[in-house]
Amino acid sequence: MTTQAHHYRITDQELPEAIQAGERPGVEFKNARGRQDASFWEVARAALGKANRPDGGLIIIGVDDNGNAPGLSETHATTWMNADHVRQALAPYADPFVWVDTEVRTVAAGPLANRRFAVISVREFDQLPVPTTVTGYTSEHSRASPHG
Fold this sequence. Notes:
There is one protein chain. This protein has a single domain (4-128), classed as 2-Layer Sandwich (Methyltransferase, Cobalt-precorrin-4 Transmethylase, Domain 2), CATH 3.30.950.30. By secondary structure, it is of the alpha+beta class. The model is unreliable at 1-6 and 136-148 (pLDDT under 50). Strand 1 (27-30), helix 2 and strand 2 form a beta-alpha-beta unit. It contains five helices and four strands, in the order αβαβααββα. The protein has helices at residues 14-21, 40-51, 74-78, 83-90, 139-144; strands spanning 27-30, 57-61, 100-106, 116-122. The chain has a four-stranded mixed sheet with strand order 1-2-4-3, sandwiched between helices. It is globular and about 40 Å long. The chain is 26% helix and 16% strand.
């Protein structure tokens, strides 16, 4: 298993800058949600896309598509704190599994002060592409995404 996605780890100080810079090939935003929400499949799709990229990437949860960054409620944030639980939630979507690390970060200062974000660091898979196990959704979708 490769660990190149560590290139995408960011510090608490870098998080506001990463949000301000907007989505790009190695960084994708998802709006506020908990791990158990029905829209989790969107996070899974993003994770597959990042796993199929050289060096992996980041998914920052708590940022809207338009760049607004309301962050996560405490309830939503709690669902992203355990990386093993996030990996288990991703497992039904890909075989072999996608390796991720998760952190919940609270911005300390500036315009985003006191807002929480889940930061998911997705490692590049050692054999590209990572196929999906979801019927009707192929790995070509994740590879073709301009954000994935």
